[in-house]
Every structure is written in structure tokens, then in C-alpha cells.
Amino acid sequence: MTTTEACVLHAQRDLRIEQVALGTPGPGEVLLDIGAGGICGSDLHYWQDGGFGTVRVREPIILGHEVAGTVAAVGPEVQGLAPGERVALNPSNPCGACEYCRRGEPQHCLEMRFWGSAMRMPHVQGGFRRHLVAPARQCVKVGEVVSIGEAAMSEPLAVALHAVAQAGEVRGRRALVTGFGPIGGVVLLALRHAGAGAVTVTDIVPEPLAIARRLGAAATVDVAADRQGLAAEERDKGRFDLAFECSGNPQALAQAIACVRPRGAIVQVGVGGAFDVPMNTVVAKELSLVGSFRFHPEFALAAGLIGRREIDVRPLITATRKLADAEAAFALAADRRAAMKVQLDFA
Asked: N or C, fewer C-beta in 10 Å, the chain?
């Protein structure tokens, strides 16, 4: 087998299923049969808009970084993995040698090669393909309890675990989550697992909020339909201890700043453009406003939590489509009223 089918984006709205080269595993590498892959917000931006911000698709790129599969063969010098074992694949491939890697902050690697990314030229190819040769060090075993689709949720859950860690102590604390897409969903799951107190979730459409309630949100607010829905939480300088802004919307951040109590923490998870931030309020309330970018040690933790089903991600996987139907799957994933997490089936 020298080629494999892959989901390749050539330009905006130009998504093709085509054959790409497939090598054999070298030292420290494994050959994988990919089972499932989740369509992420960045994948949607590439497909819908041809990129985001200054990052543009300039050559054909295999999309996808939320993938899991089964080991088909191992190359020389691979230890701890055997054919037939099911793994979640960490798409993060830092260099290990730059300043930030040496400081133990590999998510900020200066030479990062993150799967399915057009930030570099040539682009870093992704995991939406039936078969893939990958470094064994990027494979985390998930066992036999969960589905391969659940295992593919390890990457977004790792993002959420890193975001929750950025907030400090969360046990027993009241939290606000703004924006309930897939990342807002895993943030809610991560908060509940960490023992947070009551969590309120907001969004601008009602359908995701119904899922939030099923996942244990204490309250939900459709801020488009009820613009005063959080007014009570703004009293006395704010009532929430923590907020996780997952929408990338400046209005949501402003609302979080208004609703978090003095000396509380706000974690910015969603990616947007330039924000007009009410810094006078941030200063006067002595708020901690911190960003959260990707993950590193959290990936193995996420895969373990999912593999043992200590965190159950199944309610977030709302649709699965065959690779041949990839374009329809992307269209579905873009409809927030119809789907939460859409995955591709590569089996």
C-alpha cells in the first residue's frame, strides 16, 4: 500500500477526497488505521473562508487534527505499542529544542508543527486520511472501553483541561461559560470533573443550550433572546468566581468582565480579532484575565479520562459521516443549530 485516501482542501470551498502518498514506518514510527476524526473550528475556517486572519491556504492541505485510530504496524525502535492497540493521536509536534521547549512550555514551540495547519509553508498536513504514518510518541493508548470516536475527542478535551488549569482552583466555585460550541462543551465537562460549583452557560442560539442542560449546567441563558438574562449576576460587582470565554466574541468577554466578582479570573479560550476591552473595570476589580493556548501534558490526561470514561464525551458527538460525504459533513458542522461535534468515519 503506497497511497491512501485523504480529505484535501485545495482552496476555499474546494474539498476533495483523493489519493495521497503513504510511506512505511521508520524508526520510532507507527502505521495507523485512522478510525475517526472530528471537524474542528479551524477546519471549518479553512473550508469556509480559506483561512483565518493572516493564515491562508496557499497549497493543498490535508485537514484534521482530532483523530484516533488503531496501530497497524510498528517501525524499528518502537516500544510500548503493538498492532491492534487503539490510540488517540496528539497533533502537537514541538521541536523539543527551542527556548520554550527547554522551559517546559512546548505549546509555545518556535518550530511547532501542528497537524492540519496552514501557518507554515509548506503546510503541515493533517490526519483526515484512512492510513497515516506518525511518530509513536504522539500516540496515547485508550484501551477497549470507549469507541474510536470518543477517543478522537481527546484533543478538544485537552484544550479544555488546559483552560481549566489556567484558572487555578475551581473546586466549589461558581463559573460562567460563554459560547457553547464543542470547546464550550468540553470546558463544561472539565469543570464538572474538577468539582466546580454551579456553572452557567450562555449562547446566542437555543439548541446548544439544551445540550448544556443535559450535561449538567445549572443555568443557561440565550443572550440573543434575553439581553438582560445575566443582569442579576452583575450585581455587587459580579457574582461569578470564574468565567471561560469560548466564543471569541468581544461582547461575551465584556459580559464576563461585568459578571465576575473582584479578584476573580477570566480565561479567554475562544479566538477572535481585536477586542475593545473595558480595562478600567479589569483594573478596578483586580481581575485576572488570562489566555489559554492549546495544551501539552493535558493530552495524555484527556485520553486517559476518556478511555476510562471518567469524562463522557458521547453527548457532544452529534453526527458521524463517512469520508466520502466529507463536504456534507463540513456543511453540517457549520450549522450550530443542527450539530455540536461532527466526526468523519474512516473505517
From this structure: N
Q: Give residue 157's pLDDT band: very low, low, confident or very high (50, 70, 90).
A: very high
* 309: region left, alpha or beta (phi > 0 left; psi from -120 to 50 alpha): left
What H or E segment, with its residue span, contains residue 129?
A: none
For residue 124, the 8-state DSSP code is: B
- Would you tell me how many other CB atoms lie within 10 Å of the CB of residue 255? 23
pLDDT at 215 over 80: yes
How many CB atoms sit inside 10 A of residue 193's CB? 17
Round to whole Å and give the CA distance between 113 and 118.
10
* DSSP H/E element including 299: helix 298-307
Domains present along the chain, CATH in parentheses: 3-153+313-345 (3.90.180.10), 160-291 (3.40.50.720)
With 0.90 as the threshold, say if the pTM is over it.
yes
Three-state SS string across 183-227, please?
A: HHHHHHHHHHHCCECCEEEEECCHHHHHHHHHCCCCEEEECCCCC
Contact (CB, 8 A) for 20 and 62: yes
25 compared with 54, residue with greater pLDDT: 25
